[in-house]
Amino acid sequence: MSDPTDSGKTSPHAAMSRDVHARPGRPVHAPVGTTNKSQAGPGGPSHAPSAMQELDEQHVRADRPVHAQARTLDVVLALLRKELLVELRTLESIPGMSLFAVTTFVVFHFALNQDTVSGQEAAGILWVTLLFAAMLGVNRLFVADADQGGFDGFLLAPVDRTALLIAKAIALLTYLFVLELIAVPAFALLLLGPPLGQALPGLLAPLALGDLGVAAIGTLVAAMVVRTRARDLLGPMLTLPLLVPVVIGCARATAPLLQTVHPGGLQLRWLGTLALYDLVFGLIAYAVFDFLLED
Amino acid sequence: MRLPGLRALSISTVAAFCVSLSLVFFYAPIEAEEGFLQKIFYLHVPLAIVTLAGFVIGGLMAIAHLRTRDQRWDMRSYVVIHMSLIFGVGVLITGSLWAHASWGHWWVWNEPTLVSFLIIFLLYATYQPLRFAIEDPERQARYASVFAITAGAFVPLNFIAVRLSASYVHPRVLGSTSNLPGSMMLTFLVSLVAMALLFATLCSYELAAKRTRILLKARSRILGFQ
Amino acid sequence: MTPLATALPEHTNDGYVAAAYIVFFAIVLIYVAIMAIRLGRVERKVRELSAQEREHPEGAQKERETV
């Protein structure tokens, strides 16, 4: 998939940083308490110059307590806004993921030589396709940061580093949500036997929980492999085994919903496992992410 | 570990294996359903338990590494995970042999332990490629520790998930450790101890070899030769 | 006490048991063999180093490499 940002033009990330740095200077005499709010403007990198200036000022005026850490929530929101803006401008991940999913459904039709699928088969095809499409998004998640110095910029800012994890995970979650908005109706159109309408309310829970799992694990693994040599290979190799329990939970939960005869309901057992798994790995990712960003 | 420690470990491992094998072949009764084939149980299950414990211990050592930044913890974590991977190959092969003898297939999906094992094995097989894809040694150790912690937490969760997904229509192929008569339980425990000792011994040898190589490199560098 | 003689059942399942134990020991022995080869290499290097050190005791000081 050719990358529009690699054509030699300046990347959106660098462009945005330059825009923000060129903004007229923020008031550096403002007391610390109000600085946080005023700093929570658009673009993560805006934290770096004003926070640094604040710190310099405060070294001179030693009577004031030095506390330049921006609130994590503000950082997360700023980073998230940047991510989504970049995605909107460059459209790197979402169209690719969605197109991949739809094409895969077509391939499945020919591979299985079937017009419709239902039940566990349908659940399996849907989830495998969503999973592999998600891999594409995961692969691209940190690439721009690694290649264009975004990591360094972020590390310079006096902010909680897990904010990057949370922001990227939410961004990935958003991409997955949009992916499903396109892929699930496409699946219903191309391959699904029973009508989607009756299954849809039940589908929401496995989709949501599965997305959370993919987001947590995908973001962590993406951060792990982005600065290694074979990141395109290692990413899926690491993510897929870690996501097997998610596939188990989602596929088994979805299967009864998609049956032609006597469609069943959601089984709490699978949703419970999914929720537990998401929680545990969310916590683990939160705990270890800092160690990945130290340099 | 100094040499006396290694020697003690090796001797106790050999002794434990002699006792365990004698128990397996001369003491433990023949199981009613599976017959003589059941004896694989005393090899396969201790191997599996030790391997899984090894993966989890590797994760714990990785936590120690990240907390203390002592490179020795990273070395121990690496060796333990590497050894578990090797033992894991043994688990898969013996499990497959047992499945073929019992059911006629070289692989069975309704044995949750074996299936989780495959998934865990596939995950840990990426440990070394990940390590060797990072050149900076400090970053390599750090990222490897993050992986070891994540994967170590994954081991129990994976087991639960796969066990849930296994259909209970078919009875468990390779048998469980519950409802074992006393003599079998004794044999099993002794085999488990022997396997754990073997694991510890081999890990200690590996660590000693690594340390020696590092010392050697340092020496040759100081002396001006490579 | 079950004597080994009466332990052999109807089919050839004991072949599989033997195969499993053989695989296990093969893995262990291959590992030991690899360790032995590595040990040989290390010993050879140590011998080389000691020989070099004996020949050039002062030369070693001069050629100290910065690590």
Structure overview:
The complex is a heterotrimer of chains A (295), B (226) and C (67). Chain A has helices at residues 12-21, 32-39, 47-60, 72-90, 94-112, 119-140, 143-147, 150-156, 162-190, 196-225, 231-254, 268-292. Chain A is an all-alpha fold. Mean pLDDT of chain A is 79; it is low at 1-49. Chain B has 226 residues and is an all-alpha fold. Chain B has one domain. In chain B, α2 packs across α6 (137-165) and α3 packs parallel to α6. Chain C is mainly α and 67 residues long. Chain C has two helices and no strands. Chain C has helices spanning 13-55, 57-62. Chains in contact: A-B, B-C. At the B-C interface, α1, α2, α3 and α7 of B face α1 and α2 of C.
Uncertain residue ranges of chain C: 1-10
Instruction: Calculate the terminal CA-CA distance of chain A, rounded to whole Å.
Output: 30 Å
Alpha-beta classification of chain C: mainly alpha
Query: Mean pLDDT of chain C, rounded to whole units?
Result: 75
Order of H and E elements of chain C: HH
**Strands of chain A, count:** 0
Low-confidence stretches of chain A: 1-49
| Shape descriptor of chain C | rod-shaped
The gyration radius over C-alpha positions of chain C equals 26 Å
